[in-house]
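> tool_call: predict_assembly(chains=two)
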Amino acid sequence: MTATSRRNRRAFDLQEATALLARTPPLLDAWLRGLPDDWVTAHEGGDTWSPFDVLGHLIHGEEADWLPRARQIMTSGDACAFAPFDRLAQFEATRGRTLPDLLDEFGGLRRQNLAGLAALQLTAADLDRHGRHPAFGPVTLRQLLATWVAHDYDHVAQIARVLAHQYSDDVGPWRAYLRVISGQPG
Amino acid sequence: MTATSRRNRRAFDLQEATALLARTPPLLDAWLRGLPDDWVTAHEGGDTWSPFDVLGHLIHGEEADWLPRARQIMTSGDACAFAPFDRLAQFEATRGRTLPDLLDEFGGLRRQNLAGLAALQLTAADLDRHGRHPAFGPVTLRQLLATWVAHDYDHVAQIARVLAHQYSDDVGPWRAYLRVISGQPG
Protein backbone atom coordinates (compact mmCIF):
# COMPACT_ATOMS: atom_id res chain seq x y z
CA MET A 1 0.00 0.00 0.00
CA THR A 2 1.33 3.44 -0.76
CA ALA A 3 1.37 6.11 1.89
CA THR A 4 -0.36 9.36 1.04
CA SER A 5 0.55 12.72 2.44
CA ARG A 6 -2.79 13.36 4.10
CA ARG A 7 -4.25 10.10 5.31
CA ASN A 8 -6.74 11.65 7.72
CA ARG A 9 -8.86 13.55 5.18
CA ARG A 10 -10.16 12.59 1.75
CA ALA A 11 -11.44 15.30 -0.54
CA PHE A 12 -15.06 14.46 -1.33
CA ASP A 13 -15.36 12.49 -4.57
CA LEU A 14 -18.80 11.53 -5.84
CA GLN A 15 -17.70 8.22 -7.33
CA GLU A 16 -15.94 7.17 -4.12
CA ALA A 17 -18.90 8.24 -2.00
CA THR A 18 -21.21 6.17 -4.19
CA ALA A 19 -18.93 3.13 -3.82
CA LEU A 20 -18.97 3.54 -0.03
CA LEU A 21 -22.75 3.95 0.10
CA ALA A 22 -23.28 0.81 -2.01
CA ARG A 23 -21.39 -1.28 0.56
CA THR A 24 -23.51 -0.55 3.59
CA PRO A 25 -26.44 -2.89 2.80
CA PRO A 26 -24.21 -5.93 2.13
CA LEU A 27 -22.15 -5.17 5.22
CA LEU A 28 -25.25 -5.04 7.43
CA ASP A 29 -26.59 -8.14 5.73
CA ALA A 30 -23.41 -10.13 6.39
CA TRP A 31 -23.46 -8.98 9.99
CA LEU A 32 -27.09 -9.20 11.05
CA ARG A 33 -29.13 -11.57 8.87
CA GLY A 34 -29.91 -14.71 10.83
CA LEU A 35 -28.79 -13.42 14.23
CA PRO A 36 -31.02 -14.55 17.09
CA ASP A 37 -33.92 -12.12 17.67
CA ASP A 38 -32.64 -11.24 21.13
CA TRP A 39 -29.48 -9.80 19.57
CA VAL A 40 -31.36 -8.01 16.82
CA THR A 41 -33.58 -6.24 19.38
CA ALA A 42 -30.84 -5.70 21.98
CA HIS A 43 -30.11 -2.10 22.96
CA GLU A 44 -28.13 -0.03 25.46
CA GLY A 45 -30.98 0.52 27.93
CA GLY A 46 -33.73 3.14 28.20
CA ASP A 47 -34.80 4.64 24.89
CA THR A 48 -31.67 3.60 23.00
CA TRP A 49 -31.99 1.86 19.65
CA SER A 50 -31.48 -1.76 18.68
CA PRO A 51 -29.95 -2.92 15.37
CA PHE A 52 -33.57 -3.47 14.26
CA ASP A 53 -34.44 0.16 15.06
CA VAL A 54 -31.31 1.39 13.25
CA LEU A 55 -32.31 -0.52 10.12
CA GLY A 56 -35.73 1.12 10.23
CA HIS A 57 -34.09 4.52 10.59
CA LEU A 58 -31.76 3.90 7.64
CA ILE A 59 -34.76 2.87 5.52
CA HIS A 60 -36.59 6.05 6.44
CA GLY A 61 -33.49 8.04 5.48
CA GLU A 62 -33.55 6.44 2.02
CA GLU A 63 -37.22 7.37 1.66
CA ALA A 64 -37.31 10.85 3.15
CA ASP A 65 -33.83 12.31 3.59
CA TRP A 66 -30.84 11.95 1.30
CA LEU A 67 -31.93 11.64 -2.32
CA PRO A 68 -35.14 13.68 -1.86
CA ARG A 69 -33.05 16.52 -0.38
CA ALA A 70 -30.45 16.23 -3.17
CA ARG A 71 -33.25 16.50 -5.72
CA GLN A 72 -34.71 19.49 -3.91
CA ILE A 73 -31.36 21.28 -4.07
CA MET A 74 -31.10 20.54 -7.80
CA THR A 75 -34.64 21.67 -8.61
CA SER A 76 -35.24 24.56 -6.22
CA GLY A 77 -31.99 25.31 -4.40
CA ASP A 78 -32.48 26.98 -1.06
CA ALA A 79 -35.89 28.49 -1.83
CA CYS A 80 -37.53 26.32 0.82
CA ALA A 81 -36.00 24.56 3.80
CA PHE A 82 -35.88 20.74 3.68
CA ALA A 83 -38.81 19.02 5.36
CA PRO A 84 -37.64 18.10 8.88
CA PHE A 85 -36.56 14.47 9.19
CA ASP A 86 -38.45 12.36 11.72
CA ARG A 87 -35.84 10.47 13.74
CA LEU A 88 -38.53 8.32 15.38
CA ALA A 89 -40.56 7.37 12.30
CA GLN A 90 -39.16 3.83 12.25
CA PHE A 91 -40.90 2.76 15.44
CA GLU A 92 -44.30 2.93 13.77
CA ALA A 93 -43.11 1.93 10.29
CA THR A 94 -41.35 -1.28 11.34
CA ARG A 95 -43.95 -2.63 13.76
CA GLY A 96 -44.53 -6.35 13.16
CA ARG A 97 -41.83 -6.63 10.49
CA THR A 98 -38.77 -8.88 10.52
CA LEU A 99 -35.10 -8.00 10.21
CA PRO A 100 -34.56 -9.95 6.95
CA ASP A 101 -37.48 -8.00 5.50
CA LEU A 102 -35.88 -4.68 6.57
CA LEU A 103 -32.49 -5.74 5.19
CA ASP A 104 -34.11 -6.53 1.83
CA GLU A 105 -35.92 -3.23 1.78
CA PHE A 106 -32.84 -1.21 2.74
CA GLY A 107 -30.76 -2.94 0.05
CA GLY A 108 -33.40 -2.30 -2.61
CA LEU A 109 -33.92 1.34 -1.67
CA ARG A 110 -30.20 2.07 -1.52
CA ARG A 111 -29.65 0.54 -4.97
CA GLN A 112 -32.56 2.50 -6.37
CA ASN A 113 -31.39 5.74 -4.77
CA LEU A 114 -27.82 5.38 -6.01
CA ALA A 115 -29.24 4.86 -9.49
CA GLY A 116 -31.32 8.00 -8.94
CA LEU A 117 -28.22 9.87 -7.80
CA ALA A 118 -26.29 8.78 -10.89
CA ALA A 119 -29.20 9.90 -13.06
CA LEU A 120 -28.79 13.45 -11.72
CA GLN A 121 -25.41 13.53 -13.53
CA LEU A 122 -24.00 15.93 -10.97
CA THR A 123 -21.07 18.12 -11.96
CA ALA A 124 -18.42 19.55 -9.64
CA ALA A 125 -20.28 22.89 -9.79
CA ASP A 126 -23.54 21.18 -8.75
CA LEU A 127 -21.87 19.98 -5.54
CA ASP A 128 -21.49 23.63 -4.50
CA ARG A 129 -25.22 24.34 -4.86
CA HIS A 130 -27.01 25.34 -1.71
CA GLY A 131 -30.02 24.01 0.07
CA ARG A 132 -31.49 25.07 3.39
CA HIS A 133 -31.55 22.84 6.44
CA PRO A 134 -34.54 23.44 8.74
CA ALA A 135 -32.31 23.65 11.84
CA PHE A 136 -28.96 25.09 10.77
CA GLY A 137 -29.63 26.86 7.48
CA PRO A 138 -27.36 26.88 4.44
CA VAL A 139 -25.73 23.61 3.39
CA THR A 140 -24.20 22.47 0.13
CA LEU A 141 -25.06 19.41 -1.90
CA ARG A 142 -21.50 18.20 -1.23
CA GLN A 143 -22.11 18.41 2.53
CA LEU A 144 -25.39 16.53 2.17
CA LEU A 145 -23.76 13.69 0.22
CA ALA A 146 -20.72 13.47 2.53
CA THR A 147 -23.13 13.30 5.45
CA TRP A 148 -25.04 10.45 3.80
CA VAL A 149 -21.81 8.39 3.96
CA ALA A 150 -20.76 9.49 7.46
CA HIS A 151 -24.29 8.87 8.74
CA ASP A 152 -24.08 5.23 7.61
CA TYR A 153 -20.88 4.89 9.63
CA ASP A 154 -22.37 6.62 12.65
CA HIS A 155 -24.92 3.81 12.73
CA VAL A 156 -22.44 1.03 11.95
CA ALA A 157 -20.46 2.20 14.98
CA GLN A 158 -23.70 2.31 16.97
CA ILE A 159 -24.59 -1.29 16.10
CA ALA A 160 -21.08 -2.40 17.11
CA ARG A 161 -21.52 -0.56 20.42
CA VAL A 162 -24.99 -1.99 21.09
CA LEU A 163 -23.86 -5.56 20.42
CA ALA A 164 -20.64 -5.22 22.42
CA HIS A 165 -22.63 -3.64 25.25
CA GLN A 166 -24.44 -6.94 25.76
CA TYR A 167 -21.17 -8.42 27.06
CA SER A 168 -20.29 -5.43 29.28
CA ASP A 169 -20.24 -7.65 32.37
CA ASP A 170 -19.05 -10.86 30.72
CA VAL A 171 -15.75 -9.39 29.51
CA GLY A 172 -14.64 -8.84 33.11
CA PRO A 173 -11.33 -6.98 33.50
CA TRP A 174 -10.85 -6.72 29.72
CA ARG A 175 -13.45 -3.96 29.82
CA ALA A 176 -10.62 -1.45 30.34
CA TYR A 177 -9.17 -2.35 26.92
CA LEU A 178 -12.46 -2.10 25.03
CA ARG A 179 -13.40 1.48 24.29
CA VAL A 180 -16.54 0.25 22.49
CA ILE A 181 -17.73 -0.77 25.98
CA SER A 182 -15.90 1.63 28.29
CA GLY A 183 -16.68 4.69 26.17
CA GLN A 184 -13.14 5.93 26.82
CA PRO A 185 -11.23 7.59 24.01
CA GLY A 186 -8.47 5.15 23.00
CA MET B 1 -39.93 -8.93 17.27
CA THR B 2 -40.59 -9.91 20.84
CA ALA B 3 -39.45 -7.68 23.66
CA THR B 4 -37.28 -9.28 26.30
CA SER B 5 -37.08 -8.14 29.88
CA ARG B 6 -33.40 -7.30 29.77
CA ARG B 7 -32.46 -6.05 26.35
CA ASN B 8 -29.18 -4.46 27.41
CA ARG B 9 -27.39 -7.62 28.57
CA ARG B 10 -27.18 -11.13 27.10
CA ALA B 11 -25.93 -13.94 29.28
CA PHE B 12 -22.87 -15.37 27.54
CA ASP B 13 -23.80 -18.34 25.36
CA LEU B 14 -21.06 -20.21 23.53
CA GLN B 15 -23.18 -21.02 20.49
CA GLU B 16 -24.30 -17.40 20.12
CA ALA B 17 -20.76 -16.10 20.57
CA THR B 18 -19.55 -18.50 17.87
CA ALA B 19 -22.28 -17.27 15.50
CA LEU B 20 -21.24 -13.65 16.13
CA LEU B 21 -17.55 -14.41 15.62
CA ALA B 22 -18.24 -16.19 12.34
CA ARG B 23 -19.87 -13.06 10.92
CA THR B 24 -16.97 -10.65 11.32
CA PRO B 25 -14.91 -11.77 8.31
CA PRO B 26 -17.85 -11.59 5.84
CA LEU B 27 -18.88 -8.24 7.27
CA LEU B 28 -15.39 -6.78 6.80
CA ASP B 29 -15.20 -8.36 3.37
CA ALA B 30 -18.49 -6.79 2.25
CA TRP B 31 -17.32 -3.44 3.58
CA LEU B 32 -13.68 -3.18 2.57
CA ARG B 33 -12.80 -5.46 -0.35
CA GLY B 34 -12.28 -3.36 -3.45
CA LEU B 35 -12.25 0.03 -1.70
CA PRO B 36 -9.68 2.45 -3.15
CA ASP B 37 -6.27 2.09 -1.46
CA ASP B 38 -6.47 5.62 -0.09
CA TRP B 39 -9.51 4.63 1.96
CA VAL B 40 -8.00 1.35 3.08
CA THR B 41 -4.91 3.13 4.40
CA ALA B 42 -6.76 6.18 5.77
CA HIS B 43 -6.43 6.86 9.49
CA GLU B 44 -7.26 9.46 12.12
CA GLY B 45 -3.87 11.15 12.15
CA GLY B 46 -0.62 10.53 14.04
CA ASP B 47 -0.07 6.89 15.00
CA THR B 48 -3.71 5.88 14.64
CA TRP B 49 -4.60 2.78 12.65
CA SER B 50 -6.08 2.38 9.20
CA PRO B 51 -8.58 -0.36 8.22
CA PHE B 52 -5.54 -2.16 6.77
CA ASP B 53 -3.74 -2.00 10.13
CA VAL B 54 -6.87 -3.22 11.95
CA LEU B 55 -7.08 -6.24 9.66
CA GLY B 56 -3.46 -7.08 10.43
CA HIS B 57 -4.19 -6.77 14.15
CA LEU B 58 -7.24 -9.05 13.90
CA ILE B 59 -5.14 -11.64 12.06
CA HIS B 60 -2.48 -11.52 14.75
CA GLY B 61 -5.22 -12.01 17.35
CA GLU B 62 -6.34 -15.19 15.57
CA GLU B 63 -2.75 -16.45 15.57
CA ALA B 64 -1.57 -15.45 19.01
CA ASP B 65 -4.40 -14.42 21.29
CA TRP B 66 -7.88 -15.94 21.51
CA LEU B 67 -7.76 -19.65 20.72
CA PRO B 68 -4.18 -20.15 21.96
CA ARG B 69 -5.16 -18.61 25.30
CA ALA B 70 -8.36 -20.70 25.47
CA ARG B 71 -6.27 -23.82 24.89
CA GLN B 72 -3.79 -22.74 27.55
CA ILE B 73 -6.63 -22.38 30.07
CA MET B 74 -7.91 -25.85 29.19
CA THR B 75 -4.52 -27.53 29.37
CA SER B 76 -2.74 -25.71 32.18
CA GLY B 77 -5.23 -23.32 33.80
CA ASP B 78 -3.57 -20.40 35.53
CA ALA B 79 -0.22 -22.08 36.13
CA CYS B 80 1.49 -19.60 33.80
CA ALA B 81 0.38 -16.17 32.63
CA PHE B 82 -0.58 -15.80 28.98
CA ALA B 83 2.20 -14.61 26.70
CA PRO B 84 1.76 -10.84 26.33
CA PHE B 85 -0.02 -9.86 23.10
CA ASP B 86 1.90 -7.59 20.75
CA ARG B 87 -0.48 -4.83 19.69
CA LEU B 88 1.96 -3.60 17.05
CA ALA B 89 2.95 -6.90 15.45
CA GLN B 90 0.84 -6.23 12.35
CA PHE B 91 3.03 -3.38 11.11
CA GLU B 92 5.88 -5.77 10.37
CA ALA B 93 3.68 -8.76 9.43
CA THR B 94 1.59 -6.95 6.83
CA ARG B 95 4.33 -5.02 5.06
CA GLY B 96 3.91 -5.28 1.29
CA ARG B 97 0.67 -7.23 1.49
CA THR B 98 -2.71 -6.28 0.05
CA LEU B 99 -6.06 -5.86 1.75
CA PRO B 100 -7.77 -8.68 -0.22
CA ASP B 101 -4.94 -10.95 0.88
CA LEU B 102 -5.47 -9.96 4.53
CA LEU B 103 -9.24 -10.44 4.24
CA ASP B 104 -8.69 -13.94 2.87
CA GLU B 105 -6.26 -14.78 5.63
CA PHE B 106 -8.50 -13.43 8.39
CA GLY B 107 -11.49 -15.38 7.04
CA GLY B 108 -9.50 -18.60 6.84
CA LEU B 109 -7.98 -18.24 10.31
CA ARG B 110 -11.30 -17.36 11.92
CA ARG B 111 -12.99 -20.41 10.35
CA GLN B 112 -10.14 -22.63 11.46
CA ASN B 113 -10.17 -21.20 14.98
CA LEU B 114 -13.92 -21.59 15.39
CA ALA B 115 -13.51 -25.22 14.34
CA GLY B 116 -10.72 -25.50 16.91
CA LEU B 117 -12.96 -23.94 19.54
CA ALA B 118 -15.77 -26.39 18.75
CA ALA B 119 -13.29 -29.28 18.99
CA LEU B 120 -12.57 -28.30 22.61
CA GLN B 121 -16.19 -29.32 23.38
CA LEU B 122 -16.39 -26.84 26.21
CA THR B 123 -18.91 -27.43 28.98
CA ALA B 124 -20.55 -24.77 31.14
CA ALA B 125 -18.11 -25.71 33.91
CA ASP B 126 -15.16 -25.21 31.56
CA LEU B 127 -16.23 -21.60 31.00
CA ASP B 128 -15.55 -20.93 34.69
CA ARG B 129 -11.96 -22.18 34.46
CA HIS B 130 -9.28 -19.64 35.21
CA GLY B 131 -6.29 -18.40 33.30
CA ARG B 132 -3.89 -15.65 34.18
CA HIS B 133 -3.57 -12.44 32.22
CA PRO B 134 -0.06 -10.92 32.23
CA ALA B 135 -1.39 -7.46 33.18
CA PHE B 136 -4.49 -7.94 35.29
CA GLY B 137 -4.28 -11.47 36.63
CA PRO B 138 -7.13 -13.95 37.00
CA VAL B 139 -9.64 -14.21 34.17
CA THR B 140 -12.13 -16.90 33.23
CA LEU B 141 -12.47 -18.69 29.92
CA ARG B 142 -15.94 -17.13 29.64
CA GLN B 143 -14.41 -13.65 29.94
CA LEU B 144 -11.80 -14.47 27.30
CA LEU B 145 -14.43 -15.67 24.82
CA ALA B 146 -16.81 -12.75 25.49
CA THR B 147 -13.86 -10.41 24.92
CA TRP B 148 -13.08 -12.10 21.60
CA VAL B 149 -16.54 -10.99 20.40
CA ALA B 150 -16.46 -7.51 21.94
CA HIS B 151 -12.95 -6.95 20.58
CA ASP B 152 -14.22 -7.56 17.03
CA TYR B 153 -16.84 -4.88 17.60
CA ASP B 154 -14.32 -2.49 19.10
CA HIS B 155 -12.51 -2.61 15.78
CA VAL B 156 -15.65 -2.51 13.64
CA ALA B 157 -16.54 0.72 15.44
CA GLN B 158 -12.97 1.93 14.90
CA ILE B 159 -13.12 1.32 11.14
CA ALA B 160 -16.45 3.19 10.98
CA ARG B 161 -14.83 6.06 12.88
CA VAL B 162 -11.71 6.15 10.69
CA LEU B 163 -13.70 6.17 7.46
CA ALA B 164 -16.20 8.78 8.69
CA HIS B 165 -13.29 10.89 9.94
CA GLN B 166 -12.17 11.39 6.35
CA TYR B 167 -15.27 13.53 5.77
CA SER B 168 -14.92 15.51 9.03
CA ASP B 169 -14.72 18.78 7.11
CA ASP B 170 -16.93 17.82 4.17
CA VAL B 171 -20.03 17.19 6.30
CA GLY B 172 -20.10 20.86 7.34
CA PRO B 173 -22.71 21.75 9.97
CA TRP B 174 -24.03 18.16 10.09
CA ARG B 175 -20.94 17.36 12.13
CA ALA B 176 -22.95 18.18 15.28
CA TYR B 177 -25.34 15.29 14.54
CA LEU B 178 -22.63 12.71 13.85
CA ARG B 179 -21.14 11.35 17.03
CA VAL B 180 -18.87 9.07 14.98
CA ILE B 181 -17.13 12.33 13.94
CA SER B 182 -17.78 14.67 16.86
CA GLY B 183 -16.87 12.08 19.48
CA GLN B 184 -19.77 13.33 21.60
CA PRO B 185 -21.88 10.81 23.48
CA GLY B 186 -25.31 10.83 21.78
